[in-house]
């Protein structure tokens, strides 16, 4: 009865009226049943993509090769995916080719965990072929079918298990956990990008401690990029009692700090975005200087990295008083080079020659202004430059 589901009901009914089946599936069903906020409403249907396109006037081929068509309804897009099986797994990775099927059971069977394999009809009927509701109530992640076989089909599911453990605060059922332990090495077959997506969600989850502990205990960590030799550092990270991380940069900064791996090396290997790499590098650099860091270090970090570093430091040391450092930052005379009352142009207009010397002079002035040794005033800075 969530409004996002309500809004999609006319679509479901229209598919049924055309003689096909349609169900809500996937994470939104799981999360709604748990009373959590939901993200995207996924609809699964026995209708083939071409049939969906005949039923609805306005559609977009968002992933038609995988069977997904977006249906536009009152300006909102709903992804309708044809029931499918994924046979012919090669190399322990998700197959590229899928087979469309008419049977809901086959579609639910290929899903990873029982709590992700529930389907709900527009009238609220829950189709629960693998006891997902019981597992939902017991807060358990259990592979659909034989966990060993399922992790062989797609080794990413092992990372998804620890990710969901962290996100949902669920336990991993014993046979499922044992199969992760047995097959952890298969993680090496998975692309860094896919592993990283799950790892980031793990870091951001509410039960990060449990997720990271399983990541360690199952040996998955040993097959994740650059983390193989980092058992002690990961155990430290897993042991932090800090509240849930709000942004990935906090987790990555702590990883850099605890492992001693350079931020750019670690995050580039994990194929993270350049913005995140820069932010993490700056935050880790400052973190290494906390709890005491001079004004120049605070200035160089900048507001965003300061925020991340303070959160990371508070995670490492609950007694740390970040407010004092934040105040010192706020009180800096300037926060950006562009706020300097003098620049290279002004220096040259006053007889300075262009060249490396000029840059050094400007840097000296910038430091002096940041430390409060010189006022941020053009005449005073010119005079100081001439000395
Ligand atoms: P989130 O809230 O993070 O989106 P989700 O459960 O919706 O979680 P998705 O990656 O969006 O996860 O996948 C949607 C659904 O597709 C899952 O609930 C699951 O049923 C199925 N699924 C996704 N990835 C896999 C996989 N690797 N193996 C088997 N089933 C999968
Ligand atoms: Mg989803």
Describe what this molecule looks like in 3D.
This protein is α+β, with helices and mostly antiparallel strands and 387 residues long. It folds into four domains: 1-131, Beta Polymerase, domain 2 (2-Layer Sandwich); 139-224, Hydrophobic Seed Protein, CATH 1.10.110; 240-332, Methane Monooxygenase Hydroxylase, Chain G, domain 1; 338-386, Serum Albumin, Chain A, Domain 1 (Orthogonal Bundle), CATH 1.10.246.80. The protein is built from 19 helices and eleven strands. A seven-stranded mixed β-sheet has the order 3-4-5-2-1-8-9. Strands 6-7 form a two-stranded antiparallel ribbon. α7 packs parallel to α9 and α10 (208-217) runs antiparallel to α11. It is elongated, with a radius of gyration of 27 Å. Bound molecules: adenosine-5'-triphosphate and magnesium ion. Magnesium ion (MG) binds at residues 26-27, 39-40. It comes from Lacticaseibacillus jixianensis. Residues 250-385 form the CCA-adding enzyme C-terminal domain. CTP binds at residues 27, 30, 111, 154, 157, 160, 163. Residues 22-142 form the Poly A polymerase head domain. ATP binds at residues 27, 30, 111, 154, 157, 160, 163.
């Amino acid at each position: 009865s969530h409004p996002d589901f309500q809004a999609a009901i006319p679509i479901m009914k229209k598919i049924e009226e055309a003689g096909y089946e349609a169900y809500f599936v996937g994470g939104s069903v799981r999360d709604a049943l748990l009373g959590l906020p939901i993200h995207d409403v996924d609809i699964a249907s026995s209708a083939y993509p071409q049939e969906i396109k005949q039923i609805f006037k306005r559609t977009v081929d968002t992933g038609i090769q995988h069977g997904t068509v977006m249906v536009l309804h009152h300006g909102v897009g709903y992804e309708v995916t044809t029931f499918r099986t994924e046979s012919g797994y090669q190399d322990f990775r998700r197959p590229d080719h899928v087979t469309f099927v008419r049977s809901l059971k086959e579609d639910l069977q290929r899903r990873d965990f029982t709590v992700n394999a529930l389907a709900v009809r527009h009238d609220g009927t829950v189709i629960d072929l693998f006891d997902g509701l019981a597992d939902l109530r017991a807060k358990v992640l259990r592979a659909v079918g034989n966990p060993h076989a399922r992790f062989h089909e797609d080794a990413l599911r092992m990372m998804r298990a620890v990710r969901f453990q962290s996100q949902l605060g669920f336990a991993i059922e014993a046979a499922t956990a044992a199969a992760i332990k047995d097959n952890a090495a298969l993680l090496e077959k998975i692309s860094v990008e896919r592993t990283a997506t799950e790892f980031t969600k793990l870091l951001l989850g509410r039960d990060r401690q449990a997720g990271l502990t399983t990541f360690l205990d199952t040996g998955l960590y040993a097959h994740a990029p650059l983390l193989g030799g980092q058992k002690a550092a990961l155990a430290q990270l897993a042991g932090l009692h800090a509240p849930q991380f709000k942004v990935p940069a906090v987790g990555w900064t702590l990883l850099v700090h605890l492992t001693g791996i350079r931020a750019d090396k670690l995050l580039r290997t994990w194929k993270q975005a350049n913005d995140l790499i820069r932010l993490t590098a700056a935050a880790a650099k400052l973190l290494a200087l906390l709890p005491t860091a001079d004004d120049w270090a605070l200035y160089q970090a900048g507001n965003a990295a300061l925020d991340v570093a303070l959160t990371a430091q508070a995670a490492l040391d609950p007694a740390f008083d970040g407010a004092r450092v934040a105040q010192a930052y706020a009180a800096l005379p300037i926060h950006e080079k562009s706020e300097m009352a003098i620049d290279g142009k002004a220096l040259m207009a006053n007889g300075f020659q262009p060249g490396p010397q000029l840059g050094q002079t400007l840097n000296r002035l910038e430091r002096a202004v940041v430390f409060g040794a010189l006022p941020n005033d053009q005449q005073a800075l010119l005079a100081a430059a001439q000395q």
